[in-house]
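Treating backbone geometry as a discrete language has practical consequences that deserve illustration. Part of our work consisted of pairing the sequence of a single chain with a tokenised description of its backbone. We regard such an encoding as a compact summary of how the chain folds. The amino acid sequence and the backbone structure tokens for this protein are reproduced below.
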Amino acid sequence: MSVSVRIPTILRTYTGGNAEVSGEGGTLREVLQKLDADYPGIGARILDESGKIRRFVNVYVGEEDVRFVDGLDSATPAGAQISIIPAVAGG
């Protein structure tokens, strides 16, 4: 299933500067695997060594924060928009 993936500025070096790219997969896990295959190295910036979404990265499928639904097993229906948003902290 074709989806679109919004890429945050900090990760656009992996996508040749593109703010949005196409993705494929029926689950978020499959979309991220394909994303890493198309843009090598980007997966390691989103997932930790154990394959979980990094603590400081928020991922949304549509309006849903995947941490509060099915995580990497969240369904990604055709046409879904996936947003990768790094956490912002500061004081």
In short: The radius of gyration is 12 Å.
